[in-house]
Amino acid sequence: MAMLFKQLDIKDLEGFFSTEENCLKFLAEKKWEEGFICKTCGNFNYCKGKTLYSRRCTRCKHEESATAHTIFHRCHIPITEAFRIVYMVCHDPSVSTYELSRQVELRQMTCWKLKSRLMECLKSQGEVDILFHDQKKP
Predict the structure, then answer these.
(1) In this structure, is residue 138 part of a structural domain?
(2) 85 domain residue, yes or no
């Protein structure tokens, strides 16, 4: 996944990942590319959830968003800004959180938290699946 962000240029990022819908669609496609499995009961069947690109288990009614169990889980900044931070860190892992803060106009501590999650994933998974570091099989 890190390779995907490294291959993008800034125009691609600003083009495709410029809207929340595009970001969530991308996440949902990647997250469930091998099919949906309910984290609660293990069921494979789902229907649309209440929010954009979320899925709801048809058996236990557990709803899961596209960002759940990803590095964007409980991220309180716009997903487009989070994608921009991921892009910037993948292109230059040594970028400071102060520089990230200046470029995306968010608090430095907010940038630090997301960068820390991202760097942890890059180290632990060898850049394989940075977006889905927290996914667990039922």
Answers:
(1) no
(2) yes
The whole-angstrom separation of Cα 69 and Cα 104 is 24
pLDDT, average across residues 96-122: 93
Distances (CA, A) of 63 to 35, 42, 66, 75, 101: 15, 13, 10, 17, 33
Q: Give the C-alpha separation, 138 to 131, whole Å.
A: 19
Question: Does 128 fall in a domain?
Answer: yes
In a domain, 110, yes or no: yes
pLDDT confidence of residue 32:
94
* Segment 10-40, tens digit of pLDDT: 777 777 888 999 999 999 998 999 999 999 9
pTM of the complete model = 0.78
Region class of 76: left (phi > 0), else alpha (psi between -120 and 50), else beta: alpha
Q: How far is CA 90 from CA 10, 22, 39, 57, 74, in A?
A: 12, 19, 29, 34, 21
Q: Which domain holds residue 45?
A: 2-132
Distance of CA 33 to the CA centre of its chain: 14
